[in-house]
C-alpha cells in the first residue's frame, strides 16, 4: 500500500537542525525526495550527504527565508531538479523570548521577519507552481503559543497566532487548485530553539522547564508524515500536540 509520501518532492525550510532535520530524515526514509533549506549551508550539505548514503534523493539549497528572492530560487531549483514541488514545510523559526518591557525591538523584528514573513515568502514562491500543477500541500508551523499567550512570549505568540490565521485564509483560497493546507502547533519539543533567547535569566528558566517535559523532535516529524500520508481527498488542516506532561 502506498504511503502517499514515497516519490513526493518535499521542501523543508529550517532543515539544518531540530524539527526540520528530524522531519527530513523520516520523510527520506519513507521514500520522499527531500529538499533541505536553511541559512547554515554546511549543516544541510552534511545532512544531504547523510541521507544520500542511506539511498535518499535530496538537494541542499542555502536559503534565508527573510529574503524573497532566495526563497524563490529555492523553489525554482527544486522544480528544475525534480520537475515539481509537492509539499512545502514552512518550518524556519526563532523564539527569543523576553518581556515586552525589555524592549528587544531587534528581536521583535527578527521574529516577524522569520516566523511570519518567512511563511509568506514560501507561499509566494510555491503557490504559482502548485496552482499550475493543480496539486500541492503547504504545511506551516505554529506553536502551542499560537493558541495561548504567556508572559515573556507576547511577540512570539503574535507571530504564531498570525501563522494560524494565514493558514486558514490560504486553506479557503486554494480549494479550486486541489491544494491542501496544514498548520502544526507543537508544544515543548527538544530543539535548538531556546538558544535564540538572549536574556540569560529567561533562557535559564525556560530551559529548566522544557528539559523536564520536552519530547524528541521526531514527534513533530511523525505529525508531518501523518498529514502528508492521508489520501489526496483528505485535508488535515490543524494538528496541536504537546508532551503528555505539559500543562500549558
Describe, in plain words, how this protein is organized in 3D.
The protein has a seven-stranded parallel sheet, sandwiched between helices. By secondary structure, it is an alpha/beta fold. The longest helix is centred in the middle third of the chain and has 29 residues, at 105-133. It has seven helices and seven strands; from the N terminus they run βαβαβαβαβαβααβ. It is 46% helix and 16% strand. α1 (18-29) packs across α7 (218-229), α3 (68-82) packs parallel to α4 and α4 runs parallel beside α5. The protein has a single domain (9-241), classed as 3-Layer(aba) Sandwich (Rossmann fold). The model has no long low-confidence stretch (mean pLDDT 95). α1 links the parallel β1 (9-13) and β2. The protein is globular.
Q: What are the SSEs and their pairings?
A:
Layout: E1 9-13, H1 18-29, E2 33-38, H2 41-53, E3 57-62, H3 68-82, E4 87-90, H4 105-133, E5 136-141, H5 154-173, E6 179-186, H6 200-213, H7 218-229, E7 238-241
Parallel strand pairs: 1-2, 1-4, 2-3, 4-5, 5-6, 6-7
Order of helices and strands: EHEHEHEHEHEHHE
Number of helical elements = 7
Beta-strand level of the residues, as a percent range? 15-25%
Distance between the termini: 38 Å
Rg computed from alpha carbons, rounded to a whole number of angstroms = 17 Å
CATH class: Alpha Beta
What would you give as the CATH superfamily?
Answer: NAD(P)-binding Rossmann-like Domain
Low-confidence stretches: none
Overall tally of domains: 1
Helix content: 40-55%
Give the overall average pLDDT.
Answer: 95
- Tell me about the largest β-sheet: 7 strands, parallel
The SS-based structural class is alpha/beta
Question: How many extended strands?
Answer: 7
Query: What best-fitting shape do the alpha-carbon axes yield?
Result: globular
Q: What name is given to the CATH topology?
A: Rossmann fold
Biggest sheet strand order reads: 3-2-1-4-5-6-7
Amino acid at each position: 500500500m502506498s504511503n502517499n509520501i514515497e516519490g513526493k518532492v518535499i521542501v523543508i525550510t529550517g532543515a539544518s537542525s531540530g524539527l526540520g532535520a528530524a522531519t527530513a530524515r523520516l520523510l527520506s526514509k519513507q521514500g520522499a525526495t527531500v529538499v533541505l533549506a536553511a541559512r547554515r549551508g554546511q549543516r544541510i550539505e552534511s545532512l544531504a550527504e547523510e541521507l544520500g548514503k542511506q539511498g535518499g534523493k535530496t538537494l541542499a539549497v542555502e536559503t534565508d527565508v527573510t529574503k524573497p528572492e532566495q526563497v524563490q530560487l529555492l523553489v525554482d531549483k527544486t522544480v528544475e531538479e525534480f520537475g515539481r514541488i509537492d509539499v512545502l514545510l514552512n518550518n524556519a523559526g526563532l523564539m527569543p523570548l523576553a518581556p515586552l518591557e525589555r524592549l528587544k525591538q531587534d528581536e521583535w523584528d527578527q521574529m516577524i521577519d522569520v516566523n511570519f514573513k518567512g511563511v509568506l515568502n514560501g507561499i509566494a514562491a510555491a503557490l504559482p507552481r502548485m496552482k499550475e500543477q493543480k496539486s500541492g500541500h503547504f504545511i506551516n508551523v505554529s506553536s502551542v503559543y499560537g493558541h495561548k499567550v504567556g508572559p515573556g512570549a507576547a511577540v512570539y505568540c503574535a507571530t504564531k497566532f498570525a501563522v494560524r490565521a494565514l493558514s486558514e485564509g490560504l486553506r479557503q483560497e486554494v480549494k479550486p487548485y486541489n491544494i491542501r493546507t496544514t498548520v502544526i502547533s507543537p508544544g515543548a519539543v527538544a530543539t535548538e530553539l531556546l538558544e535564540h533567547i538572549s536574556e540569560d535569566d529567561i533562557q535559564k528558566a525556560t530551559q529548566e522547564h522544557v528539559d523536564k517535559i520536552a519530547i524528541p523532535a521526531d514527534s513533530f516529524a511523525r505529525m508531518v508524515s501523518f498529514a502528508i500520508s492521508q489520501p489526496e481527498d483528505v485535508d488535515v488542516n490543524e494538528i496541536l500536540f504537546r508532551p503528555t506532561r505539559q500543562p500549558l
